[in-house]
UniProtKB/TrEMBL annotation:
Organism: Macroventuria anomochaeta
Alphabetized UniProt keyword annotations: Hydrolase
Name of the protein in its database record: Glycoside hydrolase family 1 protein
Length: 495
């Protein structure tokens, strides 16, 4: 099926050739969501393997044992991506596929290394630039069992650094874009504050047997920030001089708008919410070099403190701002003292504002609504506060009505809801570039429908529809995949 897209009219006509010639565009994925082959070819167990084999944890009761079988089908996937016209592909490495038990003295699984070497070679042979994430949430289960994973900064850090170095050594001759952590914030908020993701810890005993949302959330974040910085330091000192790549971190962050723009307390609450969500990680790395004052004043000593040595390596430890964002919320202040388990900044997040305006049309994912104007504001907020080049590393949506039986109808594949999402967000991105914001990449989330963590297979984020019932996990391109190719051809300067 083919669809044609025309961008000759306003406002698209004014955005032609706005993006730099070397702008990268493509799709992002994560190992645990696509690879499958979860316990073969030497791969060790990750915390997500354990999580999804624990009854009651995943919405549809599914596991990621097969996922989209990207491990087996990578050549087919690279060919399909090439047919969409991508210039880059962001994927993550599975730590427990490379070092099954994860630790500094544990053996390497050469079959795992081979798989990533083959994938990288296949991408490069097809003119697609690899962007590689070291950690996209799938901590080796053995490290969780040995010492509590990231709760134990002292024991965890050498294990992570050995893994990082091994990856630089084995893949760094061809990989020039490294991301240490994907969304350290969501890892800790969902895994240790809410307890709805692996490793499933929180203060809520009806859900989790162990954990303390009021402290562990911030301890794990601290471990992530400092170990990111140590990995970046090693890369810069020992690998960058000859490999000549870049290294950074990818942060999550949705935009917060005041619920009532005329109430100074809501205006302040929205700013505080952005600080709790984004500046928590970004201020230490790109800004003041420390956690935001708003967090310190609410959390006191429950928020860890950077030692002088940590501070000196954390600040400036990322060559770029890796940015994942999806939506916008309205934020209303709460009166009185914050709850002990609060991690939002003592605010309430709402779908409508004081005038009853909705934050955007609903997708198939409860938290996600199309909200392009908040995205535009967020790009400016991040640029104004940190002033580092932005690499958009994830953005995308689900759409209602896509969870159907195979084969999907022409109507399902003509995913106009997702096309409208991408179109409206990319207009904002191009306008921000016209305003002087330095943006260098865009990765749609995601290439194919995949295993969406605790939501299982029901939340379909792909620009390619996947028949999960079939042995071959048959792929069916959706219109949005071609839309992105056409629109980037229009937006990226020629030459
Ligand atoms: C991000 C995450 C992805 C994907 C996406 C959609 O937070 O990095 O792995 O799940 O959200 O929910």
């Amino acid at each position: 099926m083919t669809w044609t897209h025309n961008f000759d009219e306003s406002p698209d006509a004014e955005l032609k050739d706005t993006l730099r010639r070397d702008f990268h565009w493509g799709f992002a994925t994560a190992a645990a969501q696509v690879e499958g082959t979860w316990n073969k070819d030497g791969k060790g167990e990750s915390i997500w393997d354990k999580f999804c084999h624990t009854p009651g944890k995943v919405k549809d009761g599914s596991t990621n044992e097969d996922a989209t079988r990207a491990y087996d089908l990578y050549k087919q996937d690279v060919a399909l991506m090439k047919s969409y016209g991508v210039t880059a592909y962001r994927f993550s490495l599975s730590w427990s596929r490379i070092i099954p038990l994860g630790g500094i003295n544990d053996p390497v699984n050469e079959k795992g290394v081979d798989y990533y070497n083959n994938l990288i070679d296949e991408l490069i042979a097809n003119g697609i630039t690899p962007f590689v994430t070291l950690f996209h949430w799938d901590t080796p289960q053995a490290l969780e069992d040995r010492y509590g994973g990231m709760l134990n900064q002292e024991k965890y850090t050498p294990d992570f650094l050995r893994y990082a170095c091994l990856c630089f050594e084995r893949f760094g001759d061809r990989v020039k874009h490294w991301i240490t952590y994907n969304e350290p914030g969501v890892y800790t908020l969902a895994g240790y504050a809410a307890g709805v993701h692996a490793p499933a810890r929180s203060s809520f005993r009806e859900r989790n047997a162990e954990g303390d949302s009021s402290t562990e959330t911030f301890i794990v974040a601290h471990t992530e920030i400092v170990s990111h910085a140590r990995a970046a330091k090693i890369y810069r000192e020992e690998f960058k001089p000859h490999q000549k790549g870049q290294i950074g971190i990818t942060l999550h962050g949705n935009y917060s708008e005041p619920w009532d723009v005329n109430d100074p307390k809501d205006v302040e609450a929205a700013q505080r919410a952005r600080e709790f969500e984004i500046a928590w990680f970004a201020d230490p790395i790109y800004g003041s070099g420390d956690y935001p004052a708003s967090m310190r004043s609410q959390l006191g000593s429950r928020l860890p403190t950077f030692t002088d040595e940590e501070k000196s390596i954390v600040k400036g430890s990322s060559d770029f701002y890796g940015m994942n964002t999806y939506t916008t919320f309205f934020v209303r202040h709460l009166d009185g003292e914050a709850d002990i388990n609060d991690h939002l900044g003592n605010v309430e997040k709402l779908d409508t504002n004081s005038e009853g305006k909705s934050r955007g049309p609903e997708s198939d994912t409860y938290w996600l609504r199309t909200a392009p104007s908040g995205f535009g504001k967020l790009l400016h907020w991040i640029w104004d506060r940190y002033h580092v080049p932005i690499y958009m590393t994830e953005n995308g949506t689900t759409a209602k009505g896509e969870h159907v039986k195979a084969p999907p109808s022409a109507e399902v594949l003509n995913d106009t809801f997702r096309v409208d999402f991408f179109h409206s967000y990319l207009r904002e991105l191009a306008r921000a570039v016209q305003d002087g914001v330095d943006i260098r990449s865009y990765f749609g989330w995601t290439f194919t429908d995949n295993w969406e963590w605790a939501a299982g297979f029901e939340d379909r984020f792909g620009c390619t529809w996947v028949d999960f019932e079939s042995e071959e996990k048959t792929r069916f391109p959706k219109r949005s995949a071609y839309f992105l190719g056409d629109y980037f051809t229009h937006l990226i300067a020629e030459g």
